[in-house]
Amino acid sequence: MVTIRQVAQQAGVSTGTVSRVLNSKPGVSEATRHHVLTVAREFGYALPRRSHLSTAIVTHLGLLNRPMEESLPANAFYADVLNGIEQVCHASRINLSYSSLDIVNGHLRSLPALAGDERISGLILVGAISQAVIEAIVDAMHLPIVLVDNCFAHCTWDAVMTDNAQGAFQETELLISQGHRHIALIGGPNHPSIVERRAGYQATLQKHGLTPVIVESTGLEMANGEQAVAELLQRAPETTAIVCSNDLQAMGVLRKLQESGYQVPADFSVIGFDDINLARLTSPPLTTVRVGRQALGQVATHLLLGRISDSERPAVKAVVGVTLIERASVGAPRASGTPPPDGTPSSV
Fold first, then answer.
1. Residues 339, 204: Cα–Cα separation, whole Å
2. Average model confidence (pLDDT) for the chain?
3. What is the pLDDT of residue 154?
4. Which stretches within the chain are classed as H helix?
5. Residue 74 — φ and ψ, nearest 5°?
6. Alpha-carbon gap, residue 80 to 182, rounded angstroms
7. Contact at 8 Å (CB) between 253 and 242?
8. Which neighbouring-strand residues pair with 189?
9. Where does residue 342 fall: left (phi above 0), alpha (psi -120 to 50 degrees), or beta otherwise?
10. In the predicted model, what is the mean pLDDT of residues 29-40?
11. Which uninterrupted H or E stretch holds 246?
12. In the CATH scheme, what architecture does the domain 1-55 have?
């Protein structure tokens, strides 16, 4: 089957330009439009049915996210991203349709129902969706896209990311400034944002001549934090501070430490990432890195609208800044080099 990328390569234009032409969208000269259509026909490419649509106004956008246990609005992080997207759509009088993707063993098994909606002018793809799945969506739907909280090396699509490395730098520097020298990281899945946070943590420790200690975790839920900190206590008992890949992990770490008889921050300092609403309600309130989640959605929507208007524009990677939020879960390291025996809490 001939793909949109093959047509673009043969025509000597970007995949975005081919998408604009196939969907009769503005932002492409008539000469380029004619050339791309000629190449597509010569290749035997099946032209879509969207050519009859009006190209003057964007009225509908689509949002796709990876399969989740929870719906998109119920996810602690992505609910605010969705809210930011909806704010821009509402202000611009644009309808938004969204759906989870049907992915099995890393492959797109079927297209979502919104793929048949010919009113949709562009797609927002939220979360850690693989490059292969994204390419399959682009080849099947022929629409401009923007990635949110996801990016790849030499990415040819517009993308919006958090400044994860800077956030990890700020939180690790805070711990070092408090006197901590044995700082461990609870890792996470191979998601671009989590990889960047890990890199920021490692670079900061290495800058100070300190040794990174990473306990791997396959997930970002509370249970993953509980399991990882139990391993950490056995593996590196000299640890005095724990950096978590997100707030939910950190909440699991807090719970496991307290169940084991330790006090935070007297025995261990704990720090999260994201600043979800629950972070201020933990005991003690969680020090964390605030991510502009609504801003991620807002910037992504504006980027997509710009891409729809100008398919020839170079790919843009936007980075949304972060803020270190200091609460009560971080303090000076305990006096002894190892935690108290048998889970007996330290005196405050």
1. 24
2. 89
3. 84
4. 4-11, 15-22, 30-43, 78-91, 131-141, 164-177, 192-207, 222-235, 247-259, 293-309
5. -85, -15
6. 34
7. yes
8. none
9. left
10. 83
11. none
12. Orthogonal Bundle (1.10)
Structure tokens at 10: 């043969």
Q: What one-character DSSP code corresponds to residue 265? A: T
Residue whose pair of structure tokens reads 């930011």 in the numeric block: 84
Q: Spell out the residues 6+ positions from residue 338 whose beta carbon is closer than 8 angstroms to its own.
A: 237, 238
User: Where does the chain hold its CATH 3.40.50.2300 domain(s)?
Assistant: 164-290+325-343
Angle between helices 15-22 and 4-11 (to 10 degrees): 110
Picking from 63, 3, 81, the residue whose alpha carbon sits closest to that of residue 39 is: 3
**Residue given tokens 């297209």 in the structure block:** 111
Return the exposure string of 314-330: e unless at least 16 CB atoms fall within 10 Å of the residue's CB, then b. Answer: eeeebebebebbebebb
- Sequence ranges of the chain with CATH classification 1.10.260.40: 1-55
Model confidence, pTM: 0.81
CATH 1.10.10.60 matches 164-290+325-343: no
What digits encode the pLDDT tens for the residues 204-221? 999 999 999 999 999 999
Give first-to-last CA distance, the chain, whole Å: 68
| Distance between CA atoms of residues 35 and 17, nearest Å | 11
